[in-house]
Amino acid sequence: xxxxxxxxxxxxxxxxxxxxxxxxxxxxxxxxxxxxxxxxxxxxxxxxxxxxxxxxxxxxxxxxxxxxxxxxxxxxxxxxxxxxxxxxxxxxxxxxxxxxxxxxxxxxxxxxxxxxxxxxxxxxx
Length: 125
Fold this sequence. Notes:
Layout: E1 16-26, E2 29-34, E3 41-43, H1 49-52, E4 54-55, E5 57-61, E6 64-68, E7 74-75, E8 78-79, E9 86-87, H2 95-98, H3 103-112
Antiparallel strand pairs: 1-2, 1-6, 2-3, 4-9, 5-6, 7-8
């Protein structure tokens, strides 16, 4: 189980900040490597992926991922992010990580990027 220290009181927060080095999706897992909150991998149940693919606000700036979420309850070693609006297809994904995205997300990610270089911002935020 990941180290969930610091997440005990997150339920009900309107926004959180994770200092992250890498963010990608592989199978039914979201992987977050972070140097501020000690979470290496966050297992996500397959049926919750459709919830996780929508965010009210998300962007990457240098080594930070900022997510505005309704709340993050913890259940059975999983962290669920329940939020709405902007789809994860609009999240910039490095070229070498796109193959890890579910097939349905690979093409939209590429189409939404103005510049396919690593860390390029999406033009449709």
